[in-house]
UniProtKB/TrEMBL annotation:
This is Cytochrome P450. One of its GO terms (molecular function) is heme binding. InterPro entries: Cyt_P450_sf. It comes from the Eukaryota.
């Protein structure tokens, strides 16, 4: 029973790695092979406290967009902000999607942060 479970476990891990590298929707984005296989390297870097420096190093090597884990991309270009966080189309116009002021007011109190800022206050 244990041997069968081990075989199926290894088969599942192998097939997941193959899927993540060659068939995943993010497969065409650049990044080293180990970032495409699993989150293990990322979790280790977070625990070591150096994940920000590692991601910066990956951007230096691979460019503005890097696949940092199987299902996550890192963007370093500020022009990507609108593409990621989107806009709302109504009345035949394109308007930025504003943050929920009630949520961010309670989350950060009276402190001024980029997270709580209005769109007009942080335009790139």
């Amino acid at each position: 029973m244990s041997a069968t479970r081990d075989v199926f476990g290894k088969l599942w891990l192998s097939s997941k790695a193959v899927y993540n590298i060659w068939f995943h929707p993010l497969r065409n984005f650049p990044g080293p092979w180990y970032t495409k296989v699993s989150r293990i390297w990322y979790v280790l870097r977070v625990l070591q406290g150096c994940h920000k420096y590692e991601i910066k190093r990956l951007h230096d090597e691979y460019g503005l967009v890097v696949r940092i884990v199987p299902d996550e991309l890192s963007y370093i270009d500020p022009r990507a902000w609108n593409g990621i966080y989107g806009s709302v189309v109504y009345n035949h116009g394109l308007y930025p999607m504003e943050k929920d002021g009630d949520f961010f007011a309670t989350a950060f109190g009276d402190s001024e942060t980029l997270v709580g800022a209005k769109s007009a206050e942080y335009k790139v």
